[in-house]
Amino acid sequence: MKTKTVPPPRIVVVGSSNTDMVVQTPRIPRPGETLLGGRFTLAAGGKGANQAVAAARAGGRVAFVCRLGRDWFGDQALQGFKADGVETRWLVRDAQEPSGVALIAVAADGENSIVVAPGANRRLSRHDVAAAVPAIQKARVVLAQLEVPLAAVQATVRQARKAGAMMILNPAPAQPLPESLLRQIHLLTPNETEAEILTGVKVDSPRAAAKAALRLRQRGVESVLVTLGARGVWVASGAESAHVPGFKVRAVDTTAAGDVFNGALAVALAEGQALLPAVRFAQAAAALSVTRLGAQPSAPYREEIERFLRQHADE
Q1: 204 noted as active-site residue
Q2: Is residue 61, in this structure, part of any structural domain at all?
Q3: What DSSP letter does each residue of 232-294 carry, written as one string?
Q4: Could you tell me whether strands 18-25 and 40-45 are parallel, antiparallel, or unpaired per DSSP bridges?
Q5: pLDDT averaged over the chain?
Q6: Which of 247, 256, 249, 251 lies closest to 298, judged by CA?
Q7: Would you call the peptide bond into 118 cis, given omega within 30 degrees of 0 as the criterion?
Q8: Domain region containing 188
Q9: Predicted TM-score (pTM) above 0.85
């Protein structure tokens, strides 16, 4: 008897798409300083697109809601999504704005500095989200960020809650968020800077992360993951609070590590993994990504993540 193939879980990502223009440099320049850099690369990026591609490569069945300009950058982004198996039915080509671009300097130690020109991303609307309701209604997990207008994010959260999907919000780039939005989030995933902006707590240790996470939960968020870079993740939910240490790898470029983490996390949770194993899966994906240059090019595939976890089972 032939075994029926079960389709991967459905994930909807709502967010931004950019083309990253990356220059390697000895260090991040100071204000007013000009540095002679090294290698220049052009790569697909944008927080929403990074997370959609990362989720697809990690084994998820992903639909992406975004806006692209009607230009060469948009054409290249669309081809990339299709190559990675990301469903693009809900993608809008914008006739008024160009595709988003990001100017990125990557230092020798892997740190980066980023300036984004959002272009068509700034026109993603609640109407675009409403058009994608058929996809959201089938989703197990919906994932959003803050590189698009807050109205679109709020519409996404409302539709996800109505559909009964798990709503993950990666609050990046950081900005203050209304209580009405936070109360509807199942899982919030700020890094240290974002957690500080949302809570006023300077997050410089796992203990400080725990304090910030508690404040966010007191404001209505169901569960909080404060990502601490190489130091790991602080997990705070109704069931558990714990520090999950990070994997030790040699960082080359940290540009999309948080996006890869969020994309892989969405896959693990959509598959029904418990929160702590899902975090570990996402950490493995992020650890692999920082050993490679570029945003979307750095996102690992499922078999790479599983192999990495086997190799680091004792960590």
Answers
A1: no
A2: yes
A3: -EEEE-SS-EEEEPPP----S--TTHHHHHHHHHHHHHHTT--HHHHHHHHHHHHHHHTTSSS
A4: antiparallel
A5: 93
A6: 256
A7: no
A8: 10-311
A9: yes
Q: Which pairing describes strands 223-227 and 233-236: parallel, antiparallel, or unpaired?
A: antiparallel
Q: Which among 84, 128, 253, 259 is annotated as catalytic?
A: 259
Residue 302 lies in a domain: yes
Residue 187: half-sphere exposure toward Cβ, Cα within 13 Å = 23
Helix ranges, the chain (H): 47-57, 72-83, 126-131, 133-137, 150-163, 179-182, 192-199, 206-218, 257-270, 275-289, 302-311
Q: Does residue 2 lie within any of the structural domains?
A: no
Highest average pLDDT, of 34-43, 88-97, 252-261, comes from 88-97
| Residue 1 within a domain | no
The total domain count for the chain is 1
Q: Give the model's confidence band at 142: pLDDT under 50 very low, under 70 low, under 90 confident, else very high.
A: very high
pLDDT more than 70, % of the chain = 97
pLDDT at 1 over 50: no
pLDDT tens per residue, range 106-136: 898 878 888 889 999 999 999 999 999 999 9
Which tens digits make up the pLDDT trace of 184-241? 999 999 999 999 999 999 999 999 999 999 999 999 999 999 999 889 999 999 867 9
Distance CA 86, CA 51 (A): 11
Residue given tokens 């089972």 in the structure block: 313
Residues contacting 8, CB < 8 A, separation 6+: 59, 60, 61
Q: What is the CATH number of the domain that holds 266?
A: 3.40.1190.20
Say if CB 140 and CB 9 are below 8 A apart: yes
